[in-house]
Amino acid sequence: MEELQARLAVLDEVFPLHTVQVDPKAINGSKKYTPPMFNYGAMPKRILECLRLANGRPIYTSAIAAHVAVNEGFEINQSNKARLMRRVSDRINALAHEGSIARHHDVSPGNQAEGRWSLADDDSAEAEPIAA
Prior knowledge:
Helix content: 40-55%
Radius of gyration: 27 Å
Mean pLDDT: 84
Structural class: mainly alpha
Largest sheet: 3 strands, antiparallel
Order of helices and strands: HHEHHEE
Distance between the termini: 82 Å
Shape: elongated
Strand order of the largest sheet: 1-3-2
Strand content: 5-15%
Low-confidence stretches: none
Number of strands: 3
């Protein structure tokens, strides 16, 4: 038993010599923190508000994004426009998947046309779409 305690005592002396001293504040993160564009729940609220204001007419994705940005006080510029469009488009697709809104455009591969959307319960989907 004394031999084991002696070996442990040797390890206790060696471990501090091999411990790497690291200052966590000196380590840069691998991903830059990006704060959310809007408060929680604001984007779907503004998307549905925009579609309600259209009175059943399909609205282009860019017009919905503009409505969201203006009503949330978000300034659109060249550096954040693509990010805004991606976030709005992702949220619109999620709402369509939930059944809250209806899609009025071709989704076949290779189609580059901008999406058109309306509330799912609107019957006037054949009206001329509203552009941005």
